[in-house]
Amino acid sequence: MPKTAHEKTQLVLENYIGGTFVPCSRLIDSYDPSTGEVYCKVPDSEGAEVEAAVQAAKAAFPVWSSKSPQERSKVLNKIADLIDAHLEELAHAESKDQGKTISQAQTLEIPRSSYNFRFFASSILHHVTECSDMDHMGCLHYTLRTPVGVAGLISPWNLPLYLLTWKIAPAIAMGNTVVAKPSEMTSVSAWMMCKLLDEAGVPPGVVNIVFGTGPKAGQALVSHPDVPLISFTGSTMTAQHITKCSAPYCKKLSLELGGKNPAIIFDDANLEDCIPTTVRSSFANQGEICLCTSRIFVQKGIYGEFLQRFVEAAQKWKVGVPSDPTAQIGALISKEHLEKVQGYVKLAKAEGGKVLCGYGVDSIQVPDKNKNGYFMLPTVITEVTDSSRCMQEEIFGPVTCILPFDSEEEVIQRANNVKYGLAATVWSSNVGRVHRVAKKLQAGLIWTNCWLIRDLNLPFGGMKCSGVGREGEKDSFEFFTEVKTITIKH
Ligand code: NAD
To answer: Which residues constitute the catalytic centre (predicted)?
Structure first.
């Protein structure tokens, strides 16, 4: 990967606009979550930088959008090849920047980032549109899909490159050009990817990345009149604000938001599979995945046994420095976030809950140099009410609540009793029950007897306050294009 001028002395990121790295005079501190120390400086971009990026994207649009799907596909495959070739560098950078374990970055995130490009490089070759013959009127109707223009893409800090490429890949595959803004807390892997774009044959201006905060760079992007489409992944609160800002321009919006995902465990579940998978679904990536389980409902007959075995399994999960290949949990993203997550555990106790393991119960072991890192043990809470804040609000950390239930009808009602509707898991060996429950749960994704297995061909997204719209093969194709119906009288 070629080095930029700044990188040789200190890690100082630059915006990537019109195919060129552009320094920014204002910089934000970026912290290493495993030590609590500043290790990188990120551009604090504002309206002017966003304006330059939008102009570069607009200028590149006519040529890029008129290329054949085959030509665009070739470029996307080349980006994927280059990400694969730099997997180790990217994984180490992502792990250091975000605090996630190196094994998660190596096995899940960076491979998925290249796969995002490969997947849309392939799917773009197979799109067909609709045709309807209205013979009695002497008319033939057909639809055409055209790229929308400059796409504004905003991503969060929890799965940085994975989520950013899940937006960039379909957007440019369909012929759009993009201005992307990663989270100001995790910008490094996106900046490293920019260094690969030229070699992959991405023409200048097709992908522009502007680094900075939400209120400055993000705000300028969502309220820019020449950006007709916003794909946003982040919190529900930010999405509500973005919806308001984009309303005057009637922008196309795709919003992938937070969750408060239930796991429902019936007494005929295979606990050998269920317990390790539910520990993973609760604590993977420090619980910082929108799809993580945070409310576990267990049928009364197996409640005692489940609780004991789950806590034993959670206590075995290794919290360690992100670069430790044996660590299962790394560091949380920031001091503020760690304090917020710990605050929920304190709140649960104040509300009469019982903390069975983790924060405040067990002690954490990390090397001396990591004493100021943002580490937290997997924490299990019980005896809270369904209406408590821990059971209603998204915590987004390694904390899960476990409560008993009696009947199928009761648990469906309780699982649906939150404002979110992103994902759910159901554990039972009764196929009929699994179908009945899955149909009644208010969630965009339901896993039964498993978790996090995805087919990118199928829709991804949430209902209620978890999102608007879906992304995936067909859904992304529809979102990143405009459709028109053409009628020809013969
Ligand atoms: P966030 O909403 O604080 O920030 C997300 C992005 O929006 C960041 O890039 C941020 O800089 C930007 N932003 C903030 N204010 C903005 C504004 N006024 N205008 C434009 N952009 C703005 O979310 P976060 O804390 O980075 O991420 C965690 C959240 O993301 C959680 O709620 C999590 O559930 C959610 N998430 C959802 C999915 C999903 O697919 N549904 C996936 C991952 C994360």
So the answer is: 256
Regions of the chain with pLDDT less than 50 = 5-8
Token pair of 199 as six digits: 């070699």
Question: Are residues 257 and 467 in contact, defined by beta-carbon separation less than 8 angstroms?
Answer: yes
CA 45 to chain centre: 22
Q: Which strand (E) or helix (H) includes residue 132?
A: strand 131-134
Say if ligand 1 is within 6 A of residue 233 CB. yes
Ligand 1 and 471: CB distance under 6 A: no
Compute how many other C-beta atoms are within 10 angstroms of the C-beta atom of residue 362. Answer: 15
Sign of CA dihedral 286, 289, 290, 294: negative
Record the tokens describing residue 203, joined without a space: 């023409």
Q: Give the residue whose CA is nearest to atom 10 of ligand 1.
A: 214
Sheet holding 354-357, edge to edge: 354-357, 379-382, 399-405, 293-299, 261-265, 423-427, 445-448
Q: Is the pTM of this model over 0.90?
A: yes
Distance 129 CA to ligand 1 centre (A): 33
Residue 256 annotated to the active site? yes
- Contact residues for 379 (Cβ-Cβ < 8 A; gap 6+): 345, 355, 357, 358, 359, 360, 361, 398, 399, 400
Q: Which two tokens stand for residue 413?
A: 């009602």
d(CA 354, CA 352): 7
Mutate to test the pocket of ligand 1, among 44, 45, 155, 158 (most ligand atoms within 8 A of CB): 158
Catalytic residue among 49, 94, 184, 256: 256
> 462 CA distance to ligand 1 centroid (A)?
15
pLDDT at 121: 98
Beta carbons of 367 and 321 less than 8 angstroms apart: yes
At 227 the pLDDT is 98
* Shortest-distance atom of ligand 1 to CA 241: 18
Return the closest-CA partner of residue 451 out of 260, 286, 305, 274: 274
**How many angstroms separate the CA atoms of 70 and 63, rounded?**
14
Q: What is the DSSP string of 428-463?
A: -S-HHHHHHHHHHS--SEEEESS-S---TTS-B--E
Q: Give the pLDDT confidence score for residue 28 in this predicted structure.
A: 97
Compute the half-sphere exposure of residue 482: CA atoms within 13 Å on the CB side of its CA: 14
